[in-house]
Amino acid sequence: MGQVEEAAEDLPEEPTQDQEASETEEQYDDGSRPGSPLEEDPVPVPSRSPVPGPSTPAAAAPTPTPIGKRRRPQPRAEPTAVEQAILFALKERPVPPPTATREFSHIEYYLLSLAPSLERLSFYDLESDSGENTDSEPDTALPPPAKRRLTPPSGTALTAGRAAAARGEHRGAADTAVRRQDVGDQVWIGAPAPESGPEEMGKDGSVWLSVPLGTGRGRRPSQNILREIAGPTAFARHGIHDLESAFLCLMDPLLLQHIRDCTVAEARRSGIQWYLSIPELKAFIALLYVRGSFNKNLEMESLWSDEWGLPFFRSTMPRRRYRQIMRFLRFDRREERQARLASDKFALITDVWRDFVTNSIRCYRPGENVTVDEQLYPTKARCRFTQYMANKPDKFGIKFWMAADVDSKYFLNGIPYLGKDAARPAGQRLGERVVLNLMEPFMDKGRNVTTDNFFTSLSLAKCLLARNTSLVGTMNAARRELPPSAKQRAELHSTKVLKHERATLTLYQAKRKKSVSILSTLHQTVLTGTEGKRKPETITFYNTTKVGVDSLDQMARLYSTKGATRRWPVAVFCNILDLAAINAWVLYRQCTGANIARRAFILELAKELRREHMLAKAAPPATVQRPLLPLPYVPHPQVPERRRQCQINAHCKQNKTTVVCSGCKRPVCGKCVVQLEPRCLKCV
């Protein structure tokens, strides 16, 4: 059994119970008896065979032990950690010898982790560089273990790379027989690399090494281990107890107050006395949500119609008041706008967008998979950064770069695309800068980010690996770092895997004239299916995790608050409301455990948002609606000769009274009179 069997043969055989009983009276050569402290050998060590050499004399044969005498065990040097682990493995679970294709077991990985300095240890025979013989004379102590080198067992077929590794020769990264990866301060060693194919070089000088499928397994890299619990943060769990509180965690009161102040300032700039309260602003937002949940693409006149409208609109506020709020709705101060537009094209709504994104990041921790993609919010409003994208359902709109959680579809981060960025360093791709900015709050935690061919590049993968974040994404065939084989047509449904340092490139011929290139720093090995199209696991993983932003955009469109508008800040505000409704729904379900559909959540949220406004409407006024002129006080009103019915009937049912109104001289009861002076409500 190779080296493992040879080491087992060198161990002393354990005596049976009969032998122990018959040898209880035997003595050692020096007269000591069994059972003394000298008898116990704590850890048997496999003997080391000497290395023949010109300076090594032939070892003399050991002196035979007389019959009836047992040789006294000699003191030995303490076994090394590797030797103890090997002996433990032999005793607990014997393992077969490694071959050119066999992978290491978990015990073998455990043995390798005990000796990180032996970078090419792969269960070869241990040889001593010194000519010392371990079977020395009985009274001579063994010297300390000498420096060892690794040689392959006899009869094992090795490739050139493995033979060089066994000899301890350092070769290039492409020919290294054992994969080695630095994870922080820890060094891990993978299985022996199989025979590799030829090298390929990209136009930028990147060297790719072709490797067989299903090889290169090793310990799970650190960038693939999530180091925090996904879900709502402690801030969100402490503050969310109903639907409105979940919404206010994202659109906080300070943000609503900022919108209210800017709206009132715009109205008063027009020269009218106009006021808007925060409860009324929340009721206005509730109307936008209800309109989107019913998919009512109707005219504004129809929403308050008795025939086509909804009672929710008529009971919340008049149509004229809704139009006034929409007319004056602003998100910045006009007097400060010109100075900010010089450096920020998004200045008209920058503060609102930034606060919403900050609150979204503060309330939720994403899972292990994050998607980065683009969103085109449809609008034809006049804007300096409107984009045209032919592959989108709505061709025109404002483009946002977004990051979303794959599992919950929670909006994590977003950046509006405003055109050419002067702050971007020269030589850095736009897609690389976008991914690094969006993922900045979520790096160094062992997450994976999935991107499409606009963002994915080898330089981006290296930057993310430096922050303990892996990357999986498709690559454009025009990338300079790709090898020439990425542009060549291969057999249908065939897969080719190439390696560049810690990056894995999968080339899959999906169709006769279409190939797919997947760059991954998450997968150390690539397996393929056995049936059908035989898709590699990198393709399957990409198809599963690429839908984060697309699903988020689809959910936002389903119940969108978007309406006809000529002002692009209002369109962006509607997009914020759509994303806030999705995030609030995710937070509410995970914080309270409620299982509620998203449309039902939006309708209930609208009820809670307008509740305070409806209570204020139902309450009686604290003061008289119309100002009263100072009137002379009449202590005794005119009293008719007999009681007559009240002719005002404003708050009564024809009560009888003897009081007469001093203005119209008609009888008025106590319910229809103002106590300042006996005047009816119609004469006040």
UniProtKB/TrEMBL annotation:
Comp. bias (Acidic residues): 1-29, 128-138
Residues covered by region (Disordered): 1-83, 128-207
Compositional bias of kind Pro residues: 43-55
Any Pfam family hit: DDE_Tnp_1_7
Highest taxon of source: Eukaryota
PiggyBac transposable element-derived protein domain segment(s): 246-585
PANTHER family: DUAL SPECIFICITY PHOSPHATASE 26, PIGGYBAC TRANSPOSABLE ELEMENT-DERIVED PROTEIN 4
Protein name as catalogued: PiggyBac transposable element-derived protein domain-containing protein
Organism of provenance: Knipowitschia caucasica
